[in-house]
Amino acid sequence: MNRSHGPIIFALAFLIAASASGASSAALESLNTIRAEGCDGKPGLPTRFEVDTHAEAVARELSRGAKLKDALARVGYRARHATSLVVTNASSEASMRRVLRDEFCVSILDATLTKAGIVQQGESAWIVLAAPFITPSPGDIAATNARVLELVNEARSHRRRCGTHVYQRANPLKLVASLNKAALRHAQDMAKHSFMAHIGRDGSTPAARVTAAGYVWRAVGENVASGSSMPEQAVEDWLESPDHCANLMSKSYTDMGVAFAVNPASAAGIYWSQVFASGRP
After folding, report:
1. d(Cα 259, Cα 106) in Å, to the nearest integer?
2. In this predicted structure, what is the pLDDT of residue 79?
3. Poorest-pLDDT segment among 6-15, 33-42, 67-76
């Protein structure tokens, strides 16, 4: 008699796990149906949510009462951004879909959110939607630098307001290898020591780093950023900051250098340095 208890308990545990998995699959299908069809008068999207085991671990922490920020930290899950959806009293797949459509349309139709983690217990579900933290690879340095330059020169080609000041269009900048070198030194310093500032851990200033890289300058400026996973996001962040925007639009500069450095163990994961300069005649 006793020998039969183990298999029976195992079978019950398996059935419970299978039921939870089925419920999570149904919730995922509801998310993707709403995403495809659209909601609240907004058109749908062609991309589907994909299950992410790390996001699922975050959802499990939420089901235990954790806040999203704390859950992300506990699991060690880094995302460009993430949001949580909590559904209660969903007695059927239809009611689950109705709640998701009525209350979370904006998040479901956010094209940057592509990963999903779902934990469902009874009539309640905890859902995490995340934009994965993807950084350029070391092999993409030249392409990344060229993309930043392209975006910067596109911004400079138009009249632009930076805070309270309006800047007229400015001539395009050109990439200079020595300025890239100065930018890389500082980006690696910030990534290694997990900080963001213009003064390096060795006390160096932007001007000192440019001089050390062999560039004879008349004017120097620098933008820094952290956590911006791709060139488009980094440039957008700079343009949204009045001081960084002013540097980017300044007619005082003719040359640019840029670099990024990645350190998964750091606070922000990725750090950027953008150096502006004009040489002596």
Report:
1. 34
2. 86
3. 6-15
Ramachandran angles phi, psi of 3, nearest 5° = -65, -20
What's residue 219's pLDDT?
Answer: 98
Phi/psi region, residue 85 (left: phi>0; alpha: psi -120 to 50; beta: rest), is beta
Residue the block writes with tokens 């008349």: 218
Assess contact for 116 and 127: CB atoms under 8 A.
yes
Q: Write out pLDDT tens, residues 58-75.
A: 999 999 999 999 999 999
Q: How far, CA to CA in Å, does 138 sit from each of 49, 60, 178?
A: 28, 34, 18
Q: What does the alpha-carbon distance between residue 171 and residue 37 come to, in Å, rounded to a whole number?
A: 45
Q: Can you tell me the distance from the alpha carbon of 95 to that of 56, in angstroms, rounded to the nearest whole number? A: 22
**C-alpha torsion 29→30→35→40, nearest 10:** 170
β-strands 124-132, 50-51 pairing: unpaired
Q: What is the DSSP letter of 42?
A: B
Please tell me the predicted confidence (pLDDT) of residue 9: 35
Nearest Cα residue to 240 out of 136, 163, 157, 169: 163
Question: Cα(147)–Cα(138) distance, rounded to whole angstroms?
Answer: 15
Percentage of the chain with pLDDT > 90? 77
The number of beta carbons lying within 10 Å of the beta carbon of residue 162 is 20
Single pTM value for the model: 0.72
